[in-house]
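User: My collaborator and I are trying to settle a disagreement about how two of our proteins should look. Neither of us wants to argue from intuition anymore, so we agreed to look at predicted structures for both before our next call. Could you fold the first one, then the second, and keep them clearly separated?

Assistant: That sounds like a sensible way to settle it. I'll keep them separate. The first protein:
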Amino acid sequence: MPGLGEVATLFLKLGAIGFGGPAAHIAMMEDEVVARRGWITRDRFLDLLGATNLIPGPNSTELAIHIGHARAGWRGLVVAGVSFIAPAVVIVTAIAWAYVRFGALPAVGAVLHGVKPVVIAIVVQAVWRLARAAVTTRWMLLLAIASTAAVAAGMNELLLLLLAGGGAWLVRSVRGSGAAPLLIAPFGLIPLFAVFAKIGAVLFGSGYVLLAFLRTDLVERLGWITERQLLDAVAVGQVTPGPVFTTATFIGYLVGGPAGAAAATVGIFLPAFVFVALSGPLIPRIRSSPRAGAALDAVNVASLALMAVVSWQLGTSTLVDTPTILIGIVSFLLLRFRINSAWLILAGATVGLLLLREAAGVTVMQ
């Protein structure tokens, strides 16, 4: 199949360096498949992004699946998704093994201290480029401003997207066309798969929503893990590259070893492949309808507003001292010269480790 190998190579790389959560993953994909490789247009990328925000599941993984399908057909759909997920699954499984063996998480703070400012720069760059393609009218500019303000004020992400899309549909129409809990018995691989498949099939929103679902099912209802183990699992999902949903891999390993990790991982990601396969063929039809196309345009702008607010929130918690501010600024400037984000992330990790070493040396001397 033409393009299958390059799809696998690209998404394996993105899965291995994709620190920073969905906004960062989306930014890296835009840079690689639109700006660098020209696999799809920026408008097409925006449509795929908007579509992923309207179905449950991990947005960045679903976007990878969409891109794989656009580049290499149905095989590409599977290969892109699996390739993007695989590096994180391997890394999280290794951390889970160390956690079970030694009872603690490996230290990753120093690496993240240097990587996070780079991630901020990548996201800001992508939001700017995508906004230039999406915000093409005065109405879209007003929508972008209103959406950003609404998210910053705490509006639910899905509600914002529905209001934006529904409002645009109504405006275009006026102008004319010119879940009950699962009752599952004691632990087993099939019940474990079922729990995570249910979560993957119904979950909208951020990692905080994932935390709430996991706590309700696994801590309170089933008692398979403790509160502390849940928080550690979510932390691992946040600090490792790739999809945050690999939190499921960590939990699966805790309760069922390697087989449990596999069952939980397949369970939580499988719905994403199904939803993309079902919704992907509808996107061209949506775009061809004036009213549905207007709604999709509005959802695209609202999605960028979400990314903008996330980048601001990450920035305020990440750019906290002179080194991180300098890393962020330098990374943003280098991205303007088309430096590959993978090299910037590697450089950021190296700087973080050097800063830790220097701080340790100062402490010993004192």
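The second protein, kept apart from the first:
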Amino acid sequence: MQSVLDSNLNVDSAGDRAIFNPSGVRGTGSNVTPLCRTTNPCDPNTGIIVAYQAVNPNAQYIVAGAGALATSGRNTLSTRPTNNLDLSLYKDVSITERVKFHIGAQASNLLNHPQYLPGTNPAAGLGANDVGGFATVGPSYKSFVNPADPNFNNPKSVFSSNARTIGIVGKIIF
């Protein structure tokens, strides 16, 4: 999970990891409120930030504010399973002793089970079997990994559902 800001103050735009709360409610996220030494409410432009307070202290993932130490690792939050069923049927038809006609049908996600997966983007020609990563999805993926966003850990709001595809194939063998 990412804080989607430069938490470690190394002046990059990658977005640093979030804080992991092992006793938090699984799959939940929270933003933080800065606490200042001199002003209340805290104005980051005029006050000196001394700490951050989680808006939801029961969240599992908490945004790491600027200068905070992020503790979450990679792959700590699983996405939904694929539950995919693919089917292919083929038939060879002999036209002569030497010539055959090979015809078939292929169906991916035959049961049309919704699969909201990172790395799938039908607009870019990528399906569930193509591992394109977040780069192929576009900037909206950041709302999925940002604990402060309402779409955090809600793949249905960010990724496409990878609908069923059917193809018919044929070839002549001679």
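Some points you might bring to the call about the second protein. The chain has two domains: 1-77, 87-173. DSSP finds one helix and eight strands in the chain.
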